[in-house]
Amino acid sequence: MTSWPFLVVAAHFVGAAVLLAMPRRSRRAAVVVALAPMAAAVVMAALAAGAVIDGDPVTADISWLPALGVSLDVRFDALALIFTFAIAAIGMAIITYAAGYFAPEADLRRFLALLVGFAGAMMGIAITDNLFGLFVFWELTTVTSYLLVGFQDEKGSARAAALHAILTTSLGGLAMLGGFVLLFQAAGTATLSEIVASPPSGTTTTVALVLIFLGAFTKSAQAPFHFWLPGAMAAPTPASAYLHSATMVKAGVLLLLRLAPGFAATGVWTPVVLTVGLATMMIGAWRALRQTDLKLILAYGTVSQLGFMTALVGLGSPVMLHAALAVLVAHALFKSTLFLVVGAIDHQAGTRDIRVLSGLGRRLPWLALIAVLAAASMAGVAPLLGFATKEAAVAALLDEHAWIALAVISVASALTATYALRFVFGAFGTKPPSGEVDHVGPEVAAPGPTLWGPPALLGAAGLVFGIVPGAVDAVVSAAAPGGKLVLWPGWNLALGVSIAIIAAGVAIYAAPAALAHLQHRVAARLAALHVPSAEGSYRWLIDMLNRVADRVTGITQNGSLPVYIGVILITTLTVPAAAWIGAGGALPQLPPLGSAAEIALGVFVAVVAIAVLRAKRRLAAVILLGGVGYSIAGVFVLFGAPDLALTLLLVETVTVAVFAFVLGRLPRRFEEQPWRLGRAMRAGVALVVGGFVTAAALVTNGIRTAPPVADVYVELAPDAGGRNVVNVILTDFRALDTLGEITVIAAAAVGIGALVMRTRTQRRTDDVPDTAREAA
Amino acid sequence: MRFRPSLLLDVGARSMVPTLVLVSLYVLVVGHDEPGGGFIGGLLAGVALLVVFLAGGAAQVSRVLPIDPLTMVGAGMSVAVATSVAGMVLGAGLLDAGKLELDLAWIGKISVGSTLVFDAGVYLVVVGLVAMVLTRLGAREETAP
Q1: Mean pLDDT of A56-79
Q2: Cβ distance of B97 and A63 shorter than 8 Å
């Protein structure tokens, strides 16, 4: 059984594959292919919206690995509707924008493929109702995000930032998987909606929740993992606008929102989630004030706003969840707008530094207006959507007497208003001339329609929804009933708090000297207390990891072939031998003597094997070793296994040939080794292992208790449409194993490519004189 | 191991290689009912490439290959994964097999099972690996001292 939401998600992956297969130069066609699945998603969301808002989600069970209880369980509810719509609508704006943003020589097609693939994964997170399906999509966003952050892969800094992002988020993802497994164990089902409807409790659940928190916090850049997000600004700006403001970083909040109805009452929920959220909100806002790069101001601002949402989810009551979701929607709109404005400035002026930009507002008044709209929404100024949502949050906090949370959120919101002002004036204001930097501004060319159109639309949406908040409220309330968004709340305490927040923000902005002094003092105090910074801890951790890995590699990989083979053989010996003795040590039973042909072939194998040992020349040894393989293929023929025989013959042929490549590098003859301890030990290991394998074959044949699975396969093969049982097993019964095997083969092929390429570049750099290399 | 052209090998290769490739494809197609399949077929085609390598060196292997070995490996993986997932999208489970019956009028009926497509992916991956070994490692050994 299949369903529309699932097909729409699948369409994104198909779109990404098609994009990758397209020629690099067809940019226009690439944009159309990229837009298509998102347009389908918007249409699908719009058609389903009516029923979904009425509380009738679209559900379907897509079986995946039914034997393991893993399925995709589509559940397109109001929360999924909000996310799908945001992902698709903002995605379409971003794609249009990217078409104008990237230089003609950039690989737009690859960028769009990654972006569309990411969008599919993100929608998958939103629509799946299965823990493990969610995990798979979650990690797909991690991988695509890694590739997008490192999109300019010729830059070392971009690669480092991408690595940081994937290390942090996949570490959290791994913890989250552990949490999911525990939760699955505790609840007895992997279906999210069922788990939340009748949540398990107890220690296992608590541990599971903490592990899941780790996943959510790393993804949503919560302290102390927040640091990867500013680093991820190495991504092209359209990607930052999409992943690092509107969509991916919201995945953690989304997961918390999904779990909150079931688990917010758990003892561990509020203390952990609220504390982390509040701390993140403060740290983000505080650090945003210090940045001079427009994109970094926004990145830290995003960290802060994500902390805001997390803190609200941490309080956990329905009205708080409603406010959190509303803030999330508002943030997606204004932050993506601001990022796109920064991208337009960067594209036209060639810089994002607020110390360099000057007079841009007079030159590009329309772009400035868009930015002012979005920044006002961010600061919480009426009549924008950001005002209505923050008002809902403040009213909820007042209602529930959450005084500490209200205090922290108010202070951080005041700082938000300050950095919103800093952003607008930094980007568009006119600065007094200084001797240190040459200002850029008045001579900047106006951006084309693809660069101002998408942010204008998104910014206008913030205004329209601010004036008519009922449109957003209808969906948000369907997903998290409890609160209400209004344009004008009337003169009440919450409005007073909001006005005070903005006034304080303006006041702080008006006193930059005092703020700088305070920032300096706090930094000095933290340094004196030796509080490790998130960045420093990360570097230390990676450094330690490298050192431990070095040490371990040095011990385990000593480069001696006899040691490697010895370890493998002794393991083969001891593990089954222990099991054999543990099970009572049944004695080998001699099978009936085989036919004359079998005996003859057996003797022949033994003779050739002994000849290998006696060979003096390497080439002779290799060929004789191939002869052993060929004669064993003969044994397979005698026992009626032509497939195995053919495979072995071919493998031996190819192996001998590949061996021959390497022989050119070695002496033609083996060097004579005296009978010393080393050689004696090798002989001993070989004899013992060989003897054991023989014994094991004889023992296992005699002690079988269950009927052999082979009989079942032979019986079932005709049903599967094949007379060759071996092939039916490979391609049907055990196709997953085959898939695993060819993956290993493919990895080996890629490994060969990487190794040989590496030696080639090394050779090339070795040829270059030192001075030339430094100049490059 | 330096490459030295040999007339005998060259002439031998000219007749052997097309035959080997044809046999490898035959073995792939009949694999579900007769001895054969993707692994064996792929290895047979690999042996054909090996003959090309012995007769003409690594450069000749690259020349006879229609696409880059790594692309071949990637294509094979994509085919195998796509057939595995197709069952899921079409409403069955992951890796569930299906069959397409075609009536080709006077040629007769053939049925293309999804297992054959899956096996074709295996075939491509195996040929790709052998080609990778020959063109990359082989080329390296040719230039080695």
Answers
A1: 78
A2: no
A654 contacts in B (CB within 8 Å)?
A: 43, 46-47, 50, 130
Q: Name the residue among A723, A704, A702, A706 with its Cα closest to residue A714.
A: A723
Query: pLDDT averaged over chain B?
Result: 79
Bridge partner residues of B111 (DSSP) = B101
Mind spelling out the 3-state secondary structure of B85-145?
Answer: HHHHHCCCCCCCCCEEEEECCCCCEEEEEHHHHHHHHHHHHHHHHHHHHHHHHHHHHHHCC
Spatial distance between the Cα atoms of A238 and A455, rounded to a whole number of angstroms: 11
Q: Say whether B122 and A742 touch across the interface (CB within 8 A).
A: yes
Q: Spell out which residues of chain A touch residue B50, defining contact as CB-CB under 8 Å.
A: 653-654, 657
Residue B1 domain flag: no
Q: What are the percentages of helix, strand and coil residues in chain B, rounded to 5?
A: 70, 5, 25
Contacts of A742 in chain B (CB under 8 A): 76-77, 80, 121-122, 125-126
Angle ∠(A743,A747,A752) on CA atoms, nearest 5? 150
Q: Which amino acid is at A566?
A: G
Q: How far is CA A426 from CA A99, A340, A357, A512, A585, in A?
A: 27, 16, 7, 13, 80
Q: Is the pLDDT of residue B97 over 60?
A: no
Reported ipTM: 0.85
Do residue A726 and residue B37 have CB atoms under 8 angstroms apart? yes
Higher local confidence (pLDDT), A658 or A776: A658
User: Following DSSP, what letter does each residue of A425-455 receive, concatenated?
Assistant: HHHHPPPPP-SSS--B-TTPPPPPHHHHHHH
Q: Which candidate, A42, A34, A76, places its Cα nearest to that of A56?
A: A76
Residue B60 located in a structural domain: yes
Does B2 fall in a domain?
no
Query: Chain B within 8 Å of A546 (Cβ-Cβ)?
Result: no
Judged by a CB distance cut-off of 8 A, whether residue A732 touches chain B is yes
Task: Provide the angle, in degrees to the nearest 10, between the axes of the packed helices A385-399 and A493-510.
Answer: 120
Residue B135 within any structural domain of the chain: yes
Domain that holds residue B73: 7-143
- Residue bearing the bigger pLDDT, A230 or A761: A230
Residue A122 neighbours by CB under 8 Å, 6+ apart: A83, A87, A137, A141, A247, A248, A251
Rounded to a whole number of angstroms, the distance from the CA of B129 to the nearest CA of chain A is 5
CA-based nearest distance A118→chain B, Å:
19
Q: Count up the domains in chain B and report the number.
A: 1
